[in-house]
Amino acid sequence: MKAHALFLALALSIGIACPSQAQSYNPSPENLASRQEFRDAKFGIFLHWGLYAMLATGEWTMTNKNLNYKEYAKLAGGFYPSKFDAARWVSAIKASGAKYICFTSRHHEGFSMFHTRYSDYNVVDATPFKRDILKELADECHKQGIRLHLYYSHLDWYREDYPWGRTGRGTGRPDATGDWPSYYRFMNNQLTELLTNYGPIGAIWFDGWWDQDQNPDFDWQLPEQYALIHRLQPACLVGNNHHQVPFEGEDIQIFERDLPGENKAGLSGQDISRLPLETCETMNGMWGYKITDQDYKSSDELIRYLVKAAGKDANLLLNIGPQPDGELPEVALKRLAEVGKWLNTYGETIYGTRGGCIPPHPWGVTTQKGDRLFVHILSLQDKALYLPFEGRKVKSAKTFVGGKPLKYRKDDGGITLFLEEVPRVVDMVIELQLD
Ligand code: GLC
Fold first, then answer.
1. Which atom of ligand 1 lies nearest, measured to the CA of 48?
2. Rg for the chain, CA atoms, rounded
3. How many angstroms separate the alpha carbon of residue 400 from the centre of ligand 1?
4. Under DSSP, is residue 362 helix (H, G, I), strand (E, B) or coil?
5. Is 287 in the pocket of ligand 1 (CB under 6 A)?
6. Distance between CA 362 and CA 366 in Å, rounded?
7. Interatomic CA distance for residues 195 and 1, integer angstroms
8. How many CA atoms does the CB half-sphere of 362 hold within 13 Å?
9. DSSP string computed for 260-307
């Protein structure tokens, strides 16, 4: 650990905040560059993996079934994912066209999927598997050139020092008050490990802030924690799935199960900030492995969702819940391959783009790279499409695949595009050259 990082970690652990860092956040040049890279990436894969995979009913089972924390912890003694092979995971994910992987280093159950000095309840010390899964994954990500982000739960249903929030109240921990200074020190120590022992980390993805939303006086001491992260790795982005507009010190804005500006799942609807945006979504209906859930979205649905996210200038973080044996579910692997095939052809209209100058419409969305506007027609029962333009002139129109010139007519405030046939593909992409 570098001297200044060590000092900060020490200062944090004895409760000295670092006010100059905490008060007004000025992202470093490395951080700003990393934000651009993040916006360009557009597509990532989320991996929810922990002891809960063995129960095969999703990652909330511990609290949903009020499982006693000491009994639950015994799962660790049987955790032996014999088929885990980081190289195979990373290759399959890379082939999907995803540019980053976000892995659950420690979820709400409190089990660390990495070797930590600050708790024995971790994948190396508490399981017969004894392998640092995160280390293997990180090494493989660096080797294959894909960025690694780390999910980190703020709340914990296992630790006695975590003050009870609104979840995890039935897991048998003895003292509702907990010991906040001890828990806060623990988190910062772990974050220091995560940002010191695993090479460059693209982002820390926090979750669980909402657990204390019924304790209005609760202070998560986020500014100091964020400053620690930026101190250890200036390029590391901080995101928090708190379902609020971003707080000071955050670098990206996260949405859960909804596109920015929409609120179908009930967790969103917050204002859209100017930070890079990301929304996460499940491939089936659950984050952690759920044996009975075979209700996977089709590849067409997934592709359209990715396109719609890009049209809103947001990344899609698409989730897979690995099996207890260490493999990714077969259907998930199939979906990865299918999305990858589509991106092989259409990636140019997604990666490195920004939401286009025509806002989303029921027929689809637009993405843009400089003067090239990509019109993604997702749902249209017609051969003609009116596109509203303000202040921009269209120089030419062609199909993205094949480059066939298309006819269009200049109309009031826009153009009408004439397609050769009613679109029948998952996404008919038309490329317009703007003036
Ligand atoms: C929720 C859940 C959690 C999941 C996360 C992913 O906040 O608590 O289980 O990890 O969403 O977005």
1. 10
2. 23
3. 37
4. coil
5. yes
6. 12
7. 10
8. 3
9. TT--SSSS--PPP-SS-EEEEEESSS-SS-BTT---PPPHHHHHHHHH
Residues 6+ apart with CB under 8 A from 114: 105, 106, 122, 123, 124, 132, 133, 134, 135, 193, 194, 197, 198
Mean pLDDT throughout 232-255? 98
Query: How much is the pLDDT for 9?
Result: 46
What is the 373 CA–ligand 1 centroid distance (Å)? Answer: 35
Domains in the chain: ranges and CATH: 25-352 (3.20.20.80), 356-434 (2.60.40.1180)
Mean pLDDT over 292-301 rounds to 98
Percent of the chain whose pLDDT exceeds 70: 95
Nearest CA to 427 out of 329, 305, 258, 327 is that of: 305
Q: Are 294 and 331 in contact (CB under 8 A)?
A: yes
Q: What does the alpha-carbon distance between residue 435 and residue 433 come to, in Å, rounded to a whole number?
A: 7
What is the rounded CA–CA span in Å between residue 111 and residue 107? 7
Q: Hey, whose CA ends up nearest to atom 10 of ligand 1? A: 287
Strand ranges (E), 18-77: 43-47
Distance between CA atoms of residues 189 and 195, nearest Å: 10
**Banded model confidence at residue 23, pLDDT cuts 50, 70, 90:** low
